[in-house]
Amino acid sequence: MKFIVCTENPITVQKFLTEKGISKRLLKKLKRIPDGITKNGEHIRTVDTVSDGDTIILNLKDEKFLDANPDLKNSRIKIAYEDENLIVFNKPAGIPIHPSIKHQGDTLGNYFAYLYPNLTFRPINRLDRDTSGLCAVAKNAYTASVLQGNIEKTYYAVVEGITDEYGTIDAPIAREKESIILRCIRQDGQKAVTHYRRIFCNENYSMLEIHLETGRTHQIRVHFSHIGHPLAGDEMYGGNHRVISRQALQCGKLSIKPPPESKINLTEISAETDDDILNIFK
Can you give the residue range of the structural domain that contains 99? Predict the structure, then answer.
């Protein structure tokens, strides 16, 4: 990653890179890499200064490559957006993001490894296996650093029953004591806030647009179950499979808000609503 310094007065490398969106974590990693940061071709420390016109290069080496799976090219994974720094997948339901004990080789990460065998898989937002929608993946450590915490997600869900037209659910979420997967509402849990707007409804279901203030595991699923409107298809949290065989939840929009000084230009990307979600209202 290369930067040309533009400044009236000399500033430290750390200040310059921080203004470019480089996180403290990434700076620490760069310090451990021989010639991780160079100025005009020579090694430089973060406490050293740079001046107008200097060329700063970050030598970010990728590591921890996943196994490639070319068979996943037939799995309905679509590319919603791509440039030299970022790729946004439109992930269908049924495909996990990361490999796990039960899923080795059949994940979005394995498909990314097929497309880019020499790049580390760096997802910026994560989705449950049976939640569909947009997942942004950084192609380099710089992009992952500047976009972490700078992407707002809009979800679309179908819940059972007719909700209020607008609402906010503010209820702490904790892990069920006897489970590593299930979450519940409990006063000693982590703060969790969900905002929603009803888009339309029929006599049995409501289609919602959802925005999260926090990002707890299973937050949407737990919160709507808590207020008596579990997601259609979400048997884990009280829904049923009468109209859809998985939780009716999709990440339908990403609003990207990188730091002003970064090189990321994308601002927003949307995906069409899944057919199996829309079919609930036909």
Answer: 62-148
Does some domain include residue 280? no
One-letter amino acid at 179 equals S
Q: Which residues contact 93 (CB under 8 A, 6 or more apart)?
A: 129, 130, 131, 132, 246, 274, 276
Amino acid at 18: T
For the entire predicted model, the pTM comes to 0.83
Residues 177 and 227 in one domain: yes
270 within a domain of the structure (yes/no): no
CA-to-CA distance for 277 and 61, rounded, in angstroms? 41
Give domain status of residue 259, yes or no: no
Q: In a 10 Å sphere around its CB, with 0-12 CB exposed, 13-18 middle and 19+ buried, how is residue 263 labelled? A: middle
Q: Which amino acid is at 21?
A: G
CATH number, residue 180: 3.30.2350.10
Q: Are residues 19 and 39 in the same domain?
A: yes
* pLDDT tens track for 5-15: 888 889 998 98
To the nearest 5 percent, what fractions of the chain are helix, strand and coil?
A: 20, 30, 50
Q: Could you say which of 128, 188, 275, 276 is catalytic?
A: 128
Q: What is the pLDDT of residues 235-251, one digit of tens each?
A: 999 999 999 999 999 99
Find out whether 13 and 46 touch, Cβ atoms under 8 Å. Answer: yes
- 3-class DSSP state for residue 210? strand
CA distance 91 to 134: 6
Q: Which of 92, 97, 94, 95 is nearest to 132 (CA)?
A: 92
The verdict on whether 62 is a catalytic residue reads: no
Q: Count of CB atoms within 10 A of residue 33's CB?
A: 12
Answer yes or no: do 45 and 74 share one domain: no
Domain count, the chain: 3
Say yes or no: 72 and 90 in one domain.
yes
Q: DSSP secondary-structure letter at 180?
A: S
pLDDT digit string (tens) for 192-211? 999 999 999 999 999 999 99
